[in-house]
């Protein structure tokens, strides 16, 4: 059976069953929670930028729609150009309810009339558009404002006072009509209550517009059997409010005026997410060697390194998506280099991933790292991210090991006569960086042995093999860095 809604394609594209972030359980929990609110409820769904709020809201839309709840989705960012948030919420509410229930038209008439009264004269420039949209008479608003400004000062104030009183009454009537409409939706059209309105991308809007949108929700639409879920990066929204009211303004307390409760978006399951990402390694085969390996499955290796890098640099989901896209571009660059030179490209996957992140973060290490200078004093990442159950196996050790092995070193070895001999090496042996990993257990020792093994295997094949060093990483990363 087909379901009438504004976004029917979402019903198959965005479901909790195909959620890459494994948020089905949380989505169902939140659904059951908001379904139990019937007395005018506004929930702040708080999630930092890049945590997947939009994806989550669209899946919530599908879930609620399938359960029979009239569900409205509003992208606040799309309407940011408007000067009148009330017109945006009102028009979307009317339009989407009309789509959900094609025969509900007459039941919306009174509500539409009261909304038109509330909107009358709100903004001079937008009045014609608003009244055209809601009451199909663009001339009305313009004539009202023309009459007001042609009046005497006394008459002008009287008209303003009258309009204010009308708007206050209109707000009361809107709330009453919304409550009655909800009952009609249930009794006549067989819908479940409450009506759910999902507001997305509010934190991306202009500060004034975001504040006005919250005011509109609070004063006009918080009524019986209506629930609003407003997705925000609350920290960012607080900063927007401070930009309007001043840096010392208590934006946290201010926001609590508008929200009954706050729900934090559950932490993403990065491992589950990466398992569903497509990184096709088929074209590379033996033409691009990706090391160091920690398992026999190259794709699993890449996923594990991405997880470590994402945790260490505290990357958002959007950051991870960009990292994967740029990684793919870099590997294609390696494949092109193999085709051009007919030399197998040997690429350190950890160094490549870290290089992409360092370039995006404008780390000085990215540009300063060169032969004989591995730049291991990076402070942009969390040093103590554990790689396995052994305390010594932390991210900073993995970083140091691989960065040393991304540059060349001149090392002195004594010959059989005791004289020092200089050798140019690729930084693969413990002597190259003054550390012996033979006493270690777990990941670090495995990576060190894997690096040594790779370089031992390829050093005698220099004519047919190109072992990437830092200038190679820099070149391809800078090219991929143009992708956003």
Automatic annotation (TrEMBL):
Residues 25-258 form the KAP NTPase domain. It comes from the Bacteria. This is NTPase KAP.
